[in-house]
Amino acid sequence: MKVNILKEAAKYFVKPATVPFPAVQPHFPKKFRGPPRYDPETCIGCGACAHVCPSDAITVTTKDGKKILEVWFGKCTFCARCEEACPVDSIKLMEIYSTPSPNKFDFVSRVEHDMVKCRICGKYFATVKHVEWIIKNVREKMGETVSISELKNYLMTCPECRHKVENVPSFRKLLMRVLVKEVK
Amino acid sequence: MCGLLCKLAAWARKKSPWIFHLPAGGLCNGCDIEIVAALTPRYDVERFGILLAPSPKHADILVVAGQVTKHTKERLLRVYQQVPEPKAVVAVGSCAISGNVFGTENYPLAGTVDQFIPVDVYVPGCPPKPEAIILGIVEAIKKLEGETRKS
Amino acid sequence: MVAQLLLIIGLLVYPGFVFSILYGGILIWIYRKIRARMQGRRGPPWYQTYADIMKLLSKETIIPRNAWRVGFIGAPIISIVSLATAMLLIPIWSSKPLLGFVGDTIVLLYLLTVPTFAIILAGISSNSPYGIVGASREASLLVWYELPFWFSIATILILTGTLSVEKIVSIQATLGPNIIRAPLAFIAFIIAAQAKLAKRPFDIPHAETEIVAGPYTEYSGVLRGFFEINEALKWLTISSVTATFFLGWPITGNPVFNALLFMVKVALFAIIFAVIDIINPRFRIEQAHWPLWKVALIIALIDLVRILAGIGV
Amino acid sequence: MGMCSRKVYSVPVGPYHPALEEMAFYKVYVEGERIVDALIKPGFNHRGIEKLAMKRSYRRNVQLFERVCGICSAAHTTAYCVAVERCLKIDVPKRAQYIRAVQAEANRIHSHLLWFGVAMHVIGFDTLFMHSWAIREDILDVVETLTGNRVNYSVNTIGGVRRDITPEMGKYILEKLNKVEKGTKYLIRAVKEDLTIKARTKEVGVLTKEEARKYCDVGPTARASGIEEDVRRADPHINYEDFDFEVCVEDTCDVYARIMVRLREALESIKIVRQAIKNLPKGPLMAELTVPRPNEDIGRTEAPRGELIYYIKSNYTNVPERVKLRTPTFVNLPSTKPMLIGDKLADAPQIIVSIDPCLSCNDRVIIIDVRTGKEKTMLLDEIIRRKGKVW
Description:
The structure holds four protein chains of four kinds. Chain C is mainly alpha-helical. In chain C, 71% of the residues lie in helices and 0% in strands. The model of chain C has no long low-confidence stretch (mean pLDDT 83). In chain D, helix 4 runs antiparallel to helix 5 (126-147), helix 4 runs antiparallel to helix 14 (348-354) and helix 5 packs antiparallel against helix 6 (167-193). Chain D is globular and about 65 Å long. Chain D is of the alpha+beta class. The model of chain D is unreliable at 1-5 and 363-391 (pLDDT under 50). Chain D has helices at 49-53, 58-66, 73-88, 94-122, 126-147, 167-193, 195-201, 209-214, 219-224, 231-234, 255-278, 328-332, 336-340, 348-354, 359-362, 374-385, and strands spanning 9-13, 25-31, 34-41, 156-157, 160-161, 295-303, 306-314, 322-326. In chain D, the strands form three sheets. In chain D, strands 1-2-3 form a three-stranded antiparallel sheet, with no helix packed on it. A three-stranded antiparallel sheet of chain D has the order 6-7-8. Classes of the chains: A alpha+beta, B alpha/beta, C mainly alpha, D alpha+beta.
């Protein structure tokens, strides 16, 4: 009548299914989605992670020439979309669980970046590392077609100034040259 | 004499924390099932003396999951008042901490748990692994123990 | 003077209050541990029940505003006192209990019924719907389990031809345990005792998933702790009564050995109750009458008739 | 209630009730122990998800809809992605569809075992509850290696999936599945042999075939009432036509039938996962995305609880103009009332649980009074069920 359950119970009686947890650390499979962390070395401060974050857990604040990227995994969905979006693989979901804490603002990983001033209007608009990264990538793709100084001139101009009438011709020249190179 | 009794009480509180599981609304049940999973064979919190109390009146630790909706606000407060002193509150999951994807501005939501009742420990995760929930409860026990020492 | 002092020690320490709580705590632990292991878990450490009781005793007690205070506070105390008194009527170190007299069986069995009424009182005086439903379920269960319980005991009384606990034990020591002489009555008693303990399949009065914790729902802090003590005493007394009435054999001359043997027997019956609890789901309230009346009562009656007719005695 | 001359008590069940992990408020009117009427009031978990979805881009919505319900998260994202893909005319590669099928079925196994455990807990059988959850841990291990989280999978995305199944993973999954299969078979044997479970569940909460049709039940609840319907058969949204499986139907219409249907379905799901991993086609994981145009379409999937429908209306923007969900619990919940009436109070929790109420899915619409206007609501849903566009 109760044969099966007694058999199973006897099996468990001899060998419980419990993992002795505090002594044995739990098993984390590869690519487990734990709390996200920034690598301040590689992060370029582009803000792609904040753009794709479904729960707005990643915030970007600019203040006094500093750009602060902050991921508060108290709000995180642990979906790893930031990891996917990151162009330099800087934000990573750790393969650990997040440890509890009495302060909810402990669950933060942040990076700070110096920003670049606009060549023309003097406003802060992008991080130094971002500009460097773009220059590096463009140089890799383009070779010597564009000179560094020209590229820097372009990249150190904030989007608003780029669109101003008096600045347009010089930038257009640069873009034309890039396009011609592409077609070739 | 009181010293001994207090020590005994502190020990007892450490060894027998009863939890009451309270879904506070605005949640996806993910945290709920992970809290229940912590009771089941693989994790088995009973070996630490943790028991799921059927009524808030028997509990020491309130394990809250999810965000507070306008419907559940009063009930949350009522359940919190029913827990006898000393008590601790553990907020489990991203929703309980900050609202997660649901945000805090949406019309049916009243706010996060800590806006209504004092929360002692936060367990991040969406949902947290049962191990993390156990660690969170352990953290809350420390708070209970400390309170006994003080009084 | 010395005798009175010994009596007081007996009442309070051994085999009275302190011993009962300590050993009852161990029995609860045995139950919880076996339950955990059979469910595939590891289970609590041995001191768990004591920690639970001590913690509850150190907590704030909330008495609901619309509860009847006297009944609410009195119920657990009545229950504890009656169960602790019942322990004094049970022989532990020899065949003679601490407070034995002629006809003490009847008193013992009545004392075992008191906790049920205390729980009904607790349920009703707490004045919550869950408590009242729990109390009504406890009452209807009482009607069903008392009859097989008393009939199976009656079988033993007729078999041994005495009303004294001491005699029942000493007769068993010479003629062999009643578990062999009246096996059907034993089965009936186990079923009824399971209901008396309110363990599965008869844990209907405090069915967690239906009526929260039944009569205990409104209790908190110290009073809830009293009910935890009550639970420990219940395990101990009911297992002890089973051991006394059905396995009162063997009795040796060495009191220490006897006491240890008694404790082993009690633990054995506690394990039987625990295993029945673990492998069964809960009955619905009106379904509970068929194992109690259609099975337990009938087999108890069969044994009773058999013994009255003198077959195989 | 006026016509009852004898005293009728109302017993609240929920929202903070140990039997209901979920948050719904049931007011059950009892006469003695017999239930004469029931009032269902969901809405405690209302989060305004549809409103939120209309503010976010298609891809960010995936994570939002995953959190409609944590137990059937795979089904929700699948249905949403299928709806968006149909709406935006995206062809999803076959490998992605197979991976979706694997995680959807793993999700179903975990959900059914979870439900079985809860159902056993409700009738007081904690041992089987623990055993079934112990077995469930194995399938959660599968899910964890597959997706990186135990509950919210985040694998589906518009146009494909984000995670691949490597051969080692496939081997590990098959190994674990053997354990799960053994465990599920044990559970079926344990239920079949146990007289007490039968006493508690047979002829309890009966929902006849006619009533099930009338209330438009879906999923295992309908199948337990003898209605053979399964979206996986009717509308093979993610290549279900490639797999060989059986639609489990029971005709006793009671709680016992619902238990058996779900346990047997878990075995069928194991079969599907095995087939999918064995015949996993090669190819890309993501399709090329298209530009949104004004369109509307429906995505359906067989969630663990029944048919789940997502309706999407798109415009030229990156944000859906309208999203509408219809979850299985929303359809099944009113049918608990005919199940409840006439039964005992002691059976109320297990009847309510027997439809597998996942109220976190359900609570986007607040129903205040179910006793009036119920049929009307259901008729509207009956229109939704017909395949095609009705708006």
